[in-house]
């Protein structure tokens, strides 16, 4: 199955993590988010990959090259972000004739369901949610076939949402040129789906597991999912008196020092160091060349390339960008005293994350002074600084 993977977006809802890299290349369990999408596609039966790139395209190209997991890779460039239909239309020049699949490069799909989608085209992936009002909701007829999509309806026709996975017939090559701009000024791929529904019986293929990774806390959810799948492996240097419990991976070139306890699932990547006397737990990734210092506790967090957490610090349910440096004694709060869920700023608006525990989202190059404290739900812009002893309760 020819498979188009959409990976051109800037990812403004993920800011500040996407300040200098595309959202699909954010790390999840040790590799880019979009790599998990592509892995699932290949395992499900993709025979050719077309990656649509745009923002920071070289990052995507350098990772995947011309072949990935034994499958050839082509690239199409979306010059302007004009919508999903425009993105797929840019891929037509490298697509051969015949049916093709389209996947969002910032979503995770379970492989068995994706295999069913590939075998059942024309089809659209669906996922059942309790509250579909924030999604594109699938309309179906009495036979269960899809008849259309309603975007963010106040009165949803069903609780089946569009999972951003499609198999289109060959005629869709022509339909893509008939799409007109929507009310929000974009060329929507759902218009092509509507055309398919007019000519074919389009099946809603239910995904057993699916995650749209559009906002920073969803990056933590993606990490939690994919770390469930790791198998214990120790290739790096681990002190004799360190304790590794559950599925823990220590890559070659990583160091786990004396007195460290790691309760998996956890991944310590090449060049990283942990300890001495540190505690790492939950779904945590200590990224390449990252450092967790003496008597530090890190829980359910992502430390990206080169991030350092100085001694006597605590980081919980947080994402730290590249080359972040937390001074000694930096403490992250990840729980509200009133028991309410944590809110976070997304595109200049405070949004309920639905998470009872969430710490901080920290852009690249941030530095905190010693004995500083960061409140739950704080977002720190790239290169921001925190003074020694400062308590940060608002974004900066």
From TrEMBL:
Q: Which residues form the Nucleotidyl transferase domain?
A: 3-224
Reactions catalysed, as given in the entry: N-acetyl-alpha-D-glucosamine 1-phosphate + UTP + H(+) = UDP-N-acetyl-alpha-D-glucosamine + diphosphate; alpha-D-glucosamine 1-phosphate + acetyl-CoA = N-acetyl-alpha-D-glucosamine 1-phosphate + CoA + H(+)
Pathway(s) where this gene product acts? Nucleotide-sugar biosynthesis; UDP-N-acetyl-alpha-D-glucosamine biosynthesis; UDP-N-acetyl-alpha-D-glucosamine from N-acetyl-alpha-D-glucosamine 1-phosphate: step 1/1; Nucleotide-sugar biosynthesis; UDP-N-acetyl-alpha-D-glucosamine biosynthesis; N-acetyl-alpha-D-glucosamine 1-phosphate from alpha-D-glucosamine 6-phosphate (route II): step 2/2
**Location of the Mannose-1-phosphate guanyltransferase C-terminal domain:** 263-380
Check the record and name the InterPro entries matching this protein.
Answer: Bifunctiontional_GlmU_arc-type, GlmU-like, GMPPB_C, NTP_transferase_dom, Nucleotide-diphossugar_trans, Trimer_LpxA-like_sf
Could you tell me which Pfam families the record lists for this protein? GMPPB_C, NTP_transferase
**Nucleus as UniProt keyword:** no
Q: Which controlled-vocabulary keywords does the entry list?
A: Acyltransferase, Multifunctional enzyme, Nucleotidyltransferase, Transferase
- Return the EC number: 2.3.1.157, 2.7.7.23
- NCBIfam families, A to Z: Arch_glmU
Family, according to the entry, reads as follows: In the N-terminal section; belongs to the N-acetylglucosamine-1-phosphate uridyltransferase family. In the C-terminal section; belongs to the transferase hexapeptide repeat family.
UniProt-recorded name of the protein:
Bifunctional protein GlmU
Q: Which organism is it from?
A: Halogeometricum salsisoli
């Amino acid at each position: 199955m020819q498979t188009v993977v959409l990976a051109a977006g800037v990812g403004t809802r993920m800011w500040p993590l996407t300040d200098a890299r595309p959202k699909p290349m954010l790390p999840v369990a040790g590799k880019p988010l979009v790599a998990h999408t592509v892995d699932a596609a290949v395992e499900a039966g993709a025979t050719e990959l077309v990656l649509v790139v745009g923002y920071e395209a070289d990052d995507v190209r350098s990772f995947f090259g011309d072949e990935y997991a034994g499958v050839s890779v082509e690239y199409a460039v979306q010059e302007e972000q004009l919508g999903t239909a425009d993105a797929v239309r840019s891929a037509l020049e490298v697509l051969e004739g015949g049916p093709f699949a389209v996947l969002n490069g910032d979503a995770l799909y379970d492989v068995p369901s994706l295999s069913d989608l590939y075998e059942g085209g024309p089809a659209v992936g669906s996922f059942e949610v309790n509250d579909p009002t924030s999604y594109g909701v699938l309309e179906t007829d009495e036979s269960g076939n899809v008849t259309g999509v309603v975007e963010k309806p106040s009165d949803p026709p069903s609780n089946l949402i569009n999972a951003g996975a499609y198999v289109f017939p060959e005629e869709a090559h022509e339909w893509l040129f008939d799409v007109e701009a929507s009310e929000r000024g974009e060329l929507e791929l759902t218009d092509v789906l509507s055309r398919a529904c007019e000519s074919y019986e389009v099946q809603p293929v239910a995904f057993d597991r699916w995650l749209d990774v559009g906002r920073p806390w969803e990056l933590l959810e993606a990490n939690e999912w994919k770390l469930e799948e790791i198998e214990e492996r120790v290739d790096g240097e681990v002190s004799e008196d360190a304790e590794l419990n559950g599925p823990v991976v220590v890559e070659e070139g990583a160091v786990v020092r004396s007195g460290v306890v790691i309760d998996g699932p956890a991944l310590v990547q090449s060049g990283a160091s942990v300890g001495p006397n540190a505690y790492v737990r939950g779904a945590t990734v200590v990224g390449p060349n990252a450092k967790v210092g003496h008597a530090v506790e890190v829980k359910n967090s992502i430390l990206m390339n080169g991030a350092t957490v100085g001694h006597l610090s605590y980081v919980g349910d947080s994402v730290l960008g590249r080359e972040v440096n937390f001074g000694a004694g930096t403490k992250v709060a990840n729980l509200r005293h009133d028991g309410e869920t944590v809110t976070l700023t997304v595109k200049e608006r405070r949004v309920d994350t639905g998470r009872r525990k969430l710490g901080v989202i920290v852009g690249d190059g941030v530095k905190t002074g010693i004995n500083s404290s960061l409140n739950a739900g704080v977002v720190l812009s790239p290169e921001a600084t925190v003074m020694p002893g400062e308590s940060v309760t608002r974004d900066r």
